[in-house]
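Tip: read the tokens left to right.
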């Protein structure tokens, strides 16, 4: 194959380093994509007018930095960074100590000691009063009846999600619910539209289930209605998957007028909607879910994970009338049923009002951390919500996201670039996501933000090698 690296060549130093940097720039600008095979050493040497040895050294340098992978008998390939880039910040960290990296990379609710005490108290109470079916249930695939009834009342009264008990499924977290909803209406090869930047879990589902995911332009309120309609006309998608409240990673949140416009488009074009509403409790009441505007063609997914305690993977999937018999077999095939004990705890907390108490406290804790981030990063362009888990930080020139991520890592701070959230290969936004909830100690969070502020006030180190 032939590639044109000319626009990316330049700078001082040996030619092989210039070529290695040009390869990295070509990937960053979407000219070269992960999984793409590069020309042979001789072919690229002839194209660039350099020696084969120079290209060989350039490929070696690119391999050392993690950009490419040489496969015996197959050539040199741009490394498929899905696993590394997507999962790096998902890997379990070492035990938190003063010497451990400060984790500003993972989406995580604040979990103070009071939450742990409440959890233990609830388990003690359940040991005395838990429903007998919690350990005896075998066939209630959609969930235990009393748990579904409680969930139904809460979903209608607190979140405004239409439906009745028979329309609710209990699932092992929102990610599971999202998979069940998509698998119900989307077949292998179908097209699904979503935001240009979206949760990495949806991107992973596209690869796992084999559907085509295309991004739609967004602004500070999420997907742009005109862009959505144009994409529907162009791609004729089977479904549209949207996160109207606190989109990950940008935090974009639709006002009700925008939700009205989006729902009208979906209704007019008769396209399935799958609404990821996992952050609903992090916003004050008043935002009406998209599902309420088109209940006959919408799946609604939410959970308690992002608003109470991170280990409470109680997910709730609301299914439009007439689709339950399609969704239940997929629930049975993937987990038989959601774990009853988790939902007994969720049911207990819903009944006592503890879910609302924890959500209220979470909004207060995150507001405190958002205020801290705003002070520490004063003078820099950030997008956030008062009670969001993240800050979406724009980088000053000449910083690039990959450079800041690597330099911060060397300083003991973990952050995340846009790479895991990019739906399609394109130029990486010069932004990073800074998560505020994973570090329970405010002092450690402040120290991490201080490191980032100091780095942003300096120039990137020269010839910083970017790990892909």
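Filled-in amino acids:
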């Amino acid at each position: 194959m032939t590639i044109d690296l000319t626009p990316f060549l330049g700078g001082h130093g040996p030619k092989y380093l210039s070529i290695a940097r040009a390869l990295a720039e070509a990937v960053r600008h979407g000219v070269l994509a992960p999984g793409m095979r590069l020309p042979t050493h001789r072919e690229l040497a002839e194209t660039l007018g350099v020696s084969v040895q120079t290209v060989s050294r350039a490929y070696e340098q690119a391999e050392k930095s993690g950009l490419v992978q040489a496969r015996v008998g197959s050539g040199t390939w741009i490394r498929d960074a899905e696993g590394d880039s997507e999962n790096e910040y998902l890997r379990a960290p070492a035990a938190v100590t003063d010497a451990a990296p400060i984790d500003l990379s993972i989406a995580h609710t604040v979990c103070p000691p009071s939450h742990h005490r409440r959890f233990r108290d609830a388990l003690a109470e359940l040991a005395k009063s838990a429903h007998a079916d919690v350990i005896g249930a075998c066939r209630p695939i959609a969930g235990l009846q009393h748990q579904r009834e409680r969930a139904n009342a809460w979903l209608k009264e607190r979140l405004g999600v239409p439906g009745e008990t028979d329309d609710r499924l209990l699932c092992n977290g929102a990610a599971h619910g999202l998979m069940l909803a998509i698998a119900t209406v989307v077949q292998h090869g179908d097209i699904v539209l979503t935001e240009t930047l979206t949760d990495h879990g949806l991107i992973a589902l596209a690869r796992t289930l084999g559907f085509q995911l295309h991004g739609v332009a967004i602004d500070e309120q999420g997907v742009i209605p005109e862009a959505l309609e144009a994409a529907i006309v162009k791609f004729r998608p089977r479904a549209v998957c949207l996160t109207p409240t606190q989109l990950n990673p940008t935090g974009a949140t639709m006002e009700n007028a925008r939700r009205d416009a989006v729902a009208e488009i979906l209704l007019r074009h008769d396209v399935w909607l799958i609404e990821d509403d996992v952050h609903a409790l992090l916003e004050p009441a008043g935002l009406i879910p998209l599902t309420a505007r088109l209940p006959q063609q919408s799946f609604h997914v939410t959970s308690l994970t992002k608003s109470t305690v991170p280990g409470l993977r109680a997910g709730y999937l609301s299914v439009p009338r007439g689709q339950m018999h399609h969704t239940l077999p997929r629930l049975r095939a993937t987990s038989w049923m959601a774990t009853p004990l988790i939902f007994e705890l969720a049911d207990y907390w819903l009944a006592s009002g503890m879910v609302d108490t924890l959500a209220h406290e979470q909004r207060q804790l995150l507001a405190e951390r958002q205020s801290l981030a705003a002070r520490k990063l004063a003078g820099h362009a950030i997008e956030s919500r008062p009670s969001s888990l993240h800050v979406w930080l724009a980088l000053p020139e000449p910083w690039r996201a990959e450079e800041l991520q690597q330099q911060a890592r060397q300083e003991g701070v973990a952050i995340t670039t846009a790479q895991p959230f990019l739906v399609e290969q394109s130029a990486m936004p010069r932004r990073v996501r800074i998560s505020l909830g994973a570090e329970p100690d405010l002092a450690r969070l402040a120290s991490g933000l201080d490191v980032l502020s100091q780095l942003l006030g300096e120039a990137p180190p020269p010839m910083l090698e970017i790990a892909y």
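The longest helix spans residues 354-376. The two ends are 22 Å apart (CA to CA).
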